[in-house]
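Reproducibility note. Readers wishing to regenerate the assembly model reported in the main text can use the exact inputs given here. Chain order matters: entities are listed in the order in which they were concatenated for prediction.
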Amino acid sequence: MVRVGLTAERLAQAGAELADEVGFDQVTVSALARRFDVKVASLYSHVKNSQDLKTKIALLALEELADRGAAALAGRAGKDALAALANVYRDYAREHPGRYAAAQLRLSPEAAAASAGGRHAQMTRAILRGYDLTEPDQTHAVRLLGSVFHGYISLELGGGFSHSAPDTQETWSRILDALDALLRSWPEPAPARDPAGARIGEARQQV
Amino acid sequence: MVRVGLTAERLAQAGAELADEVGFDQVTVSALARRFDVKVASLYSHVKNSQDLKTKIALLALEELADRGAAALAGRAGKDALAALANVYRDYAREHPGRYAAAQLRLSPEAAAASAGGRHAQMTRAILRGYDLTEPDQTHAVRLLGSVFHGYISLELGGGFSHSAPDTQETWSRILDALDALLRSWPEPAPARDPAGARIGEARQQV
DNA sequence: GAATTTGCCTAAAGGCTTTAGGCAATTGCA
DNA sequence: TGCAATTGCCTAAAGCCTTTAGGCAAATTC
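Running the prediction on these inputs yields the following structure tokens for the assembly.
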């Protein structure tokens, strides 16, 4: 009986590769066992269960992404920094769609705390140092950037933009221009309006 | 043997309810059969397979969402329209998280063509009539709005914003303010810069 | 009321997950 | 170097999900 030398790390790594090849939600303990040419039960000495395996892959992806982000951000500020980080996310998603999907996995609070999630938030905040925002507005801006990056990338990757005319690269750089412009002149809160401002009240009811 | 009266529509409807209760990816042919107190195999006369069931739920959700959007948009323009549509998406996601997740399902080209996807695109374009954008910029803006709505909602729903201070309702309305301001003064494309503009070249290589 | 269609059922095979218990390879230590 | 303890991968088995095939009974049609 030859030992293959399985470890949790090798499983996570191989799981990440598998995810890129067949999609994150096709990653299965069975498929991974086949890839190592080993019986399924053998993996259960290294991962608790399927969820645990997926979590390990997610943590790996978040870590890789944070490393790339940090490298890209070094020595840049303002719009350069903004574009650099944004491109890190987008490029990573294109090179490693499975890993990128893994990075979106909803983590348990404990896993989240141990993840590179905090580094990601820090990097976005670092970008905002190049713009002149008050503290609460900074948080709003962090959330906006996260939303745009994540939303755009997942729509683009999912083929949501495929059909129409201007290519997505063009849209992407125009969106970065737009975000830069927006952050340079971040608007005041709009005054509540009456006739149609009812919407605001409606939305609040549901919180 | 009492007949329950299964139809594809009832299955989709019940599947949508199940999705809201247990999460879209916990929706399974077996679970749905249990819910109707019927044997699993019976469902296979009405849906081709598990994927088909999920597609039907997705189509239903897209349809519902489009109906709500159309209703909300009626008689509104400019920022009112923007906020109305945005709130439709967000409110729907909160009321019906499973259906909302279903609506993000990647559809086959045929299913996509038969879906309410087109109506959604039309609604976003309709909003932009209240702003002064050239044709290609309109497409960029449609994509931006889609990205922000989808990205924000999925992050908020996934708990990505939970920890920090300003509540998410506040951020949401500030983001709507920001988008409105941005659309009112949509920026020119930034001129390509040299030293750090290398990014643009790098990104283009990968297309 | 008989014939046809339709709807739900039983049966069965195949796949993934997870646990329990076992033997052999490796490692650690005299 | 040789023995003991540990560790790694295996077999076995149970449970759940998917999907197909074929059958009987209820509903529909004429």
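We highlight two features of this model. Chain A touches chain B through 63 residues (CB under 8 Å). Residues 44 and 107 of chain A are 20 Å apart (CA to CA).
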